[in-house]
Design brief:
This protein has a domain of 299 residues: Glycosidases (TIM Barrel, Alpha-Beta Barrel). The relative contact order is 0.13. The strands form three sheets. It has an eight-stranded parallel β-barrel with strand order 2-3-5-6-7-8-9-16, surrounded by five helices. Strands 10, 11, 12, 13, 14 and 15 form a six-stranded antiparallel beta sheet that branches. Helix 1 runs antiparallel to helix 13, helix 6 crosses helix 7 and helix 12 packs parallel to helix 13. The chain has 490 residues and is α/β, with parallel strands linked by helices. It is built from 13 helices and 17 strands. Helices cover 38% and strands 19% of the residues.
Length: 490
């Protein structure tokens, strides 16, 4: 039975049986217990957040700590204000589906790329992967040959990644097909008619069943991009529809995701966003590689800025995580289906003049470190340990480092922490790490810490679960209008 009464006139209507002669005392104990629980919840939330915050930002100086604390406070207040506005029916553009999916269902998707492919010369083996730092591991990249899935000679590696589920029963392992190795090969021929798509889907079902994958990730870079062809956009949607239809007919639930471009120009030309949204479980937004050395724009800039920096305007002002993610939402992709990509690698430049090492400084090529401009986080750590200067761009929430002619844009613990908090505040589905291979799995940055970057989002989202539980408890038992709601069972 539930009764409500103003706090100023505390009266309770109870169903009293002969054994409840001391009901006033019981009510007093009941209220005291719930007050204690509320205090404990609040204390735990503050303690966990404070511990992790200190660990994440321990290397900052006092000025940077103050800036960081102010920014995090703004993010938290923004998230709380959105919740309050929704509960009081104020005019705010938040769809109902986001509200129902925003509480605790955050995911951490980690790409593991088969060694010796593209920019993954860092030979991380499956046995070295911690199966508890990701909710999903996507292993790739398989190819499309004759409209069927071709896993090459690396089938044993796929099997070993799937076997990680023995140590974490909640882990999902998916296969990715495509990647930047493929560019426009394989997909265009496969999608252009129903017979080819059917052959491909049949091979996908065989592969997922044989290797016990939990789903499929399609990484086509990009439909109708190299050769503008409106039919490719349509055929891609048809492919997703047909895959989803087959997946839904299976007794086991298979996941379908798409690796999606971040620049506005590619989004507009390559994707029918509302139709894609109908069929995918989520998209993995490739919100990185916004800037790297190219001959026609030979200046330094940031790989994956959360926000634009002060010197950017026009089109350059759109090359950041915040714009890309919200542009997908504007194009009608539900925000609870958008997983935000975070790189564990950096991009290197060779400075024209070592004395000019600021943003948009002239550059003449890739730096010496890394491979074709791609630099793993462990190499970046060594670069910093050997005297490189580090600059955190507070406006964009990412760092860069330089020494002599070498200049590197990258993400570190601090920038990823900002991105994880921003994902929470904006109601996106979670974080995507690209990739496990380029994180510091060798413990070269810190002796007792492997995958330091990949580990950042999990405690942020874990703490949010505690916060959400306590918030719901407070909403359930202590109402804003001064009314106490008490539930008794007899």
């Amino acid at each position: 039975m539930i009764t409500e009464s103003p706090m100023s006139q505390t009266k309770y209507k109870l169903l009293i049986n002969p054994q409840q002669s001391h009901w006033k005392t019981q009510i007093f104990y009941f209220i005291v217990i719930f007050l204690i629980i509320g205090i404990i919840c609040t204390w735990i939330s503050i303690l966990i957040s404070k511990i992790f915050y200190v660990q994440t930002l321990e290397e900052l100086n006092q000025e940077e700590k103050a800036l960081a604390g102010t920014w995090l406070h703004q993010v938290q207040m923004h998230a709380i204000s959105m919740k309050e506005n929704h509960s009081t029916n104020k005019n705010i553009n938040i769809d109902r589906e986001w509200q129902s999916n925003n509480s605790t269902e955050k995911i951490i998707v980690c790409y593991y790329t088969v060694p010796k492919t593209f920019n993954t010369v860092w030979n991380l083996s499956p046995s070295q992967i911690d199966p508890h730092i990701c909710t999903h591991i996507i292993v790739g990249f398989a190819s499309i040959v004759n409209c069927t899935v071709d896993m090459g000679v690396n089938t044993r590696i796929y099997e070993e990644v799937v076997n990680l589920k023995k140590n974490n029963s909640k882990l999902k392992v998916m296969i990715s097909i495509g990647g930047s190795n493929e560019f426009n090969f394989g997909f265009p021929e496969m999608v252009k008619n129903h017979a080819n798509r059917k052959r491909f889907i049949r091979s996908v079902l065989n592969v997922t069943k044989r290797f016990k994958f939990d789903g499929l990730d399609l990484d086509w870079e990009f439909p109708a991009w190299f050769e503008p062809n409106e039919k490719e956009k349509i055929h891609f949607v048809q492919l997703l529809y047909e895959i989803r239809k087959e997946f839904d007919h299976r007794s086991e639930k298979l996941i379908l995701s798409v690796a999606a471009a971040a620049p506005q120009t590619i989004i507009d030309q390559s994707y029918d966003v509302p139709e894609i949204a109908k069929h995918v479980d989520f998209i993995n937004l490739m919100s990185y590689d916004y800037h790297y050395y190219v001959w026609y724009f030979p200046v330094t800039d940031l790989n994956a800025p959360l926000f634009p920096h002060i010197m950017e305007s026009g089109y350059l002002n759109t090359l950041n995580v915040n714009f890309s993610a919200h542009y997908w939402v504007k194009k009608m992709m539900p925000r609870y289906k958008v997983v935000i990509g975070i790189p564990t690698y950096g991009h290197s430049y060779k400075l024209d003049n070592p004395l000019n090492h600021k943003l948009q400084a002239p550059a003449s090529g890739f730096g010496k470190l890394g491979f074709n401009g791609f630099v793993s986080y462990s190499v970046i750590c060594q670069f910093l340990k050997h005297g490189a200067s580090n600059v955190f761009v507070n406006k964009s929430k990412v760092p860069y480092a330089y020494r002599d002619e070498e200049w590197i844009s990258y993400d570190n613990k601090e920038s990823i922490y900002y991105k994880a908090k921003w994902i929470l505040a904006n109601g996106f589905k979670g974080a995507m790490i690209f990739s496990l291979n380029t994180d510091d799995w060798k413990n070269e940055c810190n002796t007792n810490e492997s995958f330091p970057l990949t580990r950042i989002p999990y405690p942020v989202y874990r703490d949010q679960v505690v916060f959400q539980w306590c918030l719901r408890w407070q909403e359930m038992y202590f109402l804003k209008d001064g009314v106490i709601k008490v539930e008794f069972s007899v």
